[in-house]
Automatic annotation (TrEMBL), chain A:
The keyword Signal applies. Pfam families: SBP_bac_1. Belongs to the bacterial solute-binding protein 1 family. Keywords: Signal. It is found in: Periplasm. Residues 1-21 form the signal peptide. The keyword Signal applies. This is Carbohydrate ABC transporter substrate-binding protein. It comes from Pseudotabrizicola sediminis.
Automatic annotation (TrEMBL), chain B:
It is found in: Cell membrane. It comes from Pseudotabrizicola sediminis. This is Sugar ABC transporter permease. The lineage of its organism: Bacteria, Pseudomonadati, Pseudomonadota, Alphaproteobacteria, Rhodobacterales. The keyword Oxidoreductase does not apply. InterPro entries: ABC_transporter_permease (IPR051393), MetI-like (IPR000515), MetI-like_sf (IPR035906). Its main location: membrane. It holds the Pfam family BPD_transp_1. Keywords: Cell membrane, Membrane, Transmembrane, Transmembrane helix, Transport. Belongs to the binding-protein-dependent transport system permease family.
């Protein structure tokens, strides 16, 4: 096991250090169809810029999560990478400012999310979000209609949604009423909707509060009551990520809480199997917040070809390219100019997609400050890890909720101590 | 043909001969200087260098990691904490209640691994012995049956895990069959006992052929005249097994037991793909704990993972020494006979 990991790390390091002058290695993972779109864009860039050779290394998301950090710590890695763990790895990103032809363009169009990908207190320009994401729900409209249950409307709470989905599940004989991806990130929007605040006054993690406890207790009760699909959270240990998208796609659950990045996946796989709608985030006692996030394209500071990297980044950050990328991938654009201009020509014939994207744009206005601060908070990742690890133990009957809260606090404290 | 052989011989042998003549003088000189022991060391050097770089050095680095903490991945940037990571792993206020341990999941993984080792190895030995006894008989299509039992050994552990997940999943083949027969589906991988049993069953299925083959070799080495004598004496089959087969199979059996123990302590791939350590932590084993803490978790702690791997390494070293001791004892017995 250990030898395998070392071999992987060495192999990955070698892969990252073989770039020649003019070569720009781009590490890219895909959730949906964006890999194909990126291949096309890279081919066009290479054709237009004969002096630069962009090499697209398509990898699994797990590689980005587990191996990229090792490469970066070794002072190697790709020249550019698409990552979601952007804040934690911020010390490894290159400040593109001196290499950019128009830094102001970047501040104007990507400035709102610049803090997500740079160290606290820095004004560096390290990259841009390839897409904005927002957590939110999806309902199988066909199942609701067949069951004669009305879709809960605006302002509906989590209880309203689960009760309605439960009626559908009983009527239609589905495996459960709903599922949430096994992820601390995914339950953090709902936690904040119930009043949770993760960030202490000193910027360090705050102890688990009543808001988190309120939603965690509901989750556990829903698993015990059979409303929430057990498979997603219970059938794994640790902070392993598990999505429940396939259960929604297979109509095994009428309601699914995930995020905007699933739109292309659902559209592709469901096709005309059934009608589905994006619902935004159900409400708690404090609001109806989802959690923003997304993936960023960042430059790595260990590159030997910084001017070329900047040129590549400038190309992909161009307004027309961002617009095309978003339209083809069905991702919400993070470019302020593109978002403000509107008139997106989404490349799909699926009638569910446009409405879903509109629903997410509308839901973006419901993000509460407590959730809005999390993407730029460096301790968010360990907090998410502790939440998912311990709450799933309660669901499996191994811990009581009170024990889990104490363990979450302990895990986070230890993670912070170890990191400092 | 001779012509071809001659040409090949010339092509291969000529450069080798030239090389031997080239090295002859320096090697003789070196032998004179270093003596016979020096020459042994000289020829062992390439292997020792590889062993040092790929085994010894990582081991030393691992020990060094286990005495550090911090977010940095590289050793020089990490903070030295002595035995603090070991203390953290081993600290409990009440050792009868694992939830009082600071690293409760390490202890859960340890308990799960211990239970798994005892159950899996016992069942595996019994199953492998029965399989070997059956395959040792004059069956029709014997080669086919031997291949059937050995086939899973050739599969990648990940493939084994996936195949069985597809079978045991909520929407898997087994539940489809149960529903088809009018029965209720069962959450095989979501109930603690079922999931743990599945991990045991699948690993036995995957490794049975390998161990059965070792035992089969032992069975075939037992002289036939002993069985013929027992048959003439009218000895019952059970007595033949306990008094002839098992004692003479014991050298192979001991090897099988120790190898099975080592593999069981290292259990990871099949179980990880099959259950992901769940439900909850019901099938969280030591290797997965180390992997998660060191590499996969959102709460990565390489120092803690290194300390846990050293503790696990200690267990494996004991088992390996046991295997070596048993091997030597068998060798001595063989010489005496």
């Amino acid at each position: 096991m250990k030898n395998t990991m070392i071999a992987l790390a060495l192999g990955a390091s070698l892969m990252g250090t073989t770039a020649l002058a003019g070569d720009v290695r781009l590490m890219w993972y895909s959730d949906g169809v964006e890999g194909e779109v990126m291949k096309d864009l890279v081919a066009r860039f290479n054709a237009e810029n004969p002096g630069i050779n962009v090499i697209l290394d398509e990898v699994a998301y797990k590689v980005v999560q587990e191996q990229l950090q090792i490469q970066l710590e070794a002072g190697s890695g790709p020249d550019i990478a698409r990552v979601t763990n952007i804040k934690t790895l911020a010390p490894h990103w290159l400040d593109l400012t001196p290499h950019l032809s128009d830094a102001e363009y970047w501040r104007t169009n990507f400035g709102a999310h610049a803090d997500w990908m740079r160290e606290d207190g820095s004004d560096a320009i390290t990259g841009f979000m390839t897409q904005l994401t927002l957590t939110g729900g999806y309902a199988n409209a066909t199942l609701f209609e067949q069951a004669g249950v009305a879709l809960p409307g605006e302002g509906a709470t989590w209880d309203d949604w689960v009760n309605a989905a439960d009626q559908v599940a009983k009527s239609q004989g589905t495996a459960a009423a709903f599922a949430i991806d096994r992820s601390g990130h995914r339950i953090s929007g709902p936690n904040v909707s119930y009043g949770a605040n993760y960030i202490g006054a000193d910027g360090l993690p705050a102890p688990v509060d009543d808001g988190t406890k309120a939603f965690a207790a509901k989750l556990v009760a829903w698993v015990e009551g059979g409303q929430m699909l057990r498979d997603t959270w219970v059938a794994a240990s640790g902070s392993t990520y598990r999505a429940a998208a396939d259960d929604f796609i297979n109509a095994a659950i009428p309601f699914y809480y995930s995020g905007s990045w699933q739109i292309a996946n659902l559209s592709t796989k469901i096709g005309d199997g059934f009608d589905w709608v994006a619902t935004g985030s159900p409400c708690g006692t404090a609001g109806c917040s989802g959690l923003a996030g997304g993936a960023a394209l960042v430059a790595v500071k260990y590159t030997q070809n910084a001017p070329e990297v900047a040129k590549v980044m400038e190309y992909f950050a161009r307004e027309d390219i961002v617009k095309e990328f978003s339209e083809r991938t069905l991702f919400l654009p993070a470019h302020a100019g593109v978002a403000a201009a509107g008139g997106m020509n989404w490349q799909t014939e699926d009638k569910n997609v446009g409405a879903a994207l509109d629903a997410y744009v509308a839901a973006a206005g419901d993000i509460l400050p407590g959730a809005g601060a999390l993407p730029a908070w460096k301790w968010a990742t360990p907090y998410y890890g502790a939440l998912v690890n311990r709450i799933s133990q309660v669901m499996a009957g191994e811990l009581t909720l009170d024990d889990a809260y104490a363990r979450i606090d302990q895990d986070i404290t230890e993670a912070v101590a170890a990191a400092q | 043909m001779t012509g071809v052989k001659g040409v090949l011989g010339a092509v291969v042998a000529a450069p080798l001969g030239w090389l031997a003549r080239l090295l002859d003088t320096p090697l003789r000189l070196w032998q004179r200087l270093a003596g016979q022991n020096g020459m042994v060391a000289f020829f062992l050097l390439p292997n020792m260098a590889i062993f040092t770089v790929f085994v010894l050095l990582p081991l030393v680095i691992n020990i060094a990691y286990s005495m550090t903490t911090g977010a940095a991945l590289f050793l020089p940037e990490r903070t030295y904490v002595g035995a603090a990571q070991f203390e953290r792993l081993l600290r409990c206020t009440d050792y009868t209640d694992l939830m009082t341990c600071q690293e409760d999941q390490f202890w859960i993984a340890l308990r799960n691994t211990g239970t798994f080792v005892v159950l899996q190895v016992s069942l595996l030995i019994v199953a492998a012995t029965i399989t070997a006894l059956i395959l040792n008989r004059a069956l029709r299509a014997l080669s086919f049956w031997r291949a059937v039992f050995f086939f899973p050994v050739l599969l990648s552990p990940v493939v084994v895990g996936l195949i069985w997940r597809w079978i045991l999943d909520r929407n898997g083949v087994l539940n489809a069959a149960l529903v088809g027969m009018g029965m209720d589906p069962v959450n095989w991988l979501l109930e603690r006992n079922y999931a743990f049993s599945a991990a045991i069953g699948v690993t036995i299925w995957a490794h049975l052929g390998f161990f059965a083959l070792i035992l089969l070799a032992g069975l075939q080495a037992i002289p036939r005249d002993l069985y013929e004598a027992a048959e003439m004496d009218g000895t019952r089959p059970a007595r033949v097994f306990w008094r002839i087969t098992l004692p003479l199979l014991m050298p192979n059996m001991l090897v099988v037991i120790v190898l099975a123990l080592i593999r069981a302590v290292q259990v990871f791939d099949e179980a990880y793909v099959l259950t992901g350590g769940g439900p909850g932590t019901a099938t969280l084993f030591l290797t997965q704990y180390i992997y998660e803490v060191g590499f996969a978790s959102l709460l990565k702690n390489p120092g803690l993972a290194a300390a846990a791997s050293i503790l696990m390494g200690g267990v494996l070293i004991v088992l390996t020494l046991l295997q070596l001791a048993l091997g030597k004892r068998n060798e001595r017995r063989g010489k005496l006979k």
